[in-house]
Amino acid sequence: FFFFLGMEKVIACAHKRPNALCRLICFPWAGGGTTQLAQWGKLFSNSIEVFCVRFPGRETRSNEPFAKDMTSMVNEVTSALLKELQDKPFAFFGHSFGSYLSFGVALHLKEKYGLEPVHLFVSGAHGPNSEAILPIKSIPISDANDEDVLAYIQILGGTVSELLSNDDLRKELLLTFREDFRVLQTFSFEKAEMDIPLSCDITCFSGSDDKQYDLRAWQEVTSGETSFYELPGGHFYLLEPSNQIFLTKYVTRCIENAGL
């Protein structure tokens, strides 16, 4: 029973489908909650159950301290999901910060438990072994003033302007974004230490108006197929209803083709 509580704390499932053939675990972006991605559950057919990871420090976990680093987040998500991931096939979808976390969890599951997603869908993120990640580590997020952080969040888009005009909500968003970004800066992956770590197929999505990501680097972390799709829109292209229809169909097809 306690375990179940642990899972409910870390995982949101808005549309429960106990008879689903596969689970799609979604990992949100920095500063993000579970609201948008948990609702993807209603877009998918009965064969796919959607879980969304809830990071500490927000929503029902707002009284908990934020995560300190990527490793502790990877460990927490892994232990909350382990039982579920052992009982039926699963796929991961991560956006931005969530792409790096989903990769970290996939790696940990494979190394420690011999488990692997049937497909890894990543979005708006550099390959984990890419040099392009290095500049992220040197952004002085702790010292940056609120205006600069807000400007950065607004460049990314995807934040409702009402949020930013309400003082309390803006404060909360700024704090959450800073803390998640600080966790992102602790992410590191040394490909030299291991052979090709994953064998699942990986699909990389990006928005046509977003900045350029080093997506090709994702090819080096799996022996499976790697595909690339650019969809219309900015960093939060995935919140557009027309893109969600494409993503739902594409993800469903990949999972079905994985021959579960």
From TrEMBL:
According to its UniProt entry, the protein's GO biological process terms are: medium-chain fatty acid biosynthetic process
What domain of life does the native source organism fall in? Eukaryota
Q: Thioesterase domain: which residues?
A: 23-243
- The kind of enzyme this is, by top-level EC class, is hydrolase
Q: Which reaction does it catalyse?
A: (9Z)-octadecenoyl-[ACP] + H2O = (9Z)-octadecenoate + holo-[ACP] + H(+)
Query: Does RNA-binding appear among the keywords?
Result: no
**InterPro entries according to UniProt:** AB_hydrolase_fold (IPR029058), TEII (IPR012223), Thioesterase (IPR001031)
Q: Which family does it belong to?
A: Belongs to the thioesterase family.
Task: Give the protein name, as stated in the record.
Answer: S-acyl fatty acid synthase thioesterase, medium chain
Q: Which organism is it from?
A: Pitta sordida
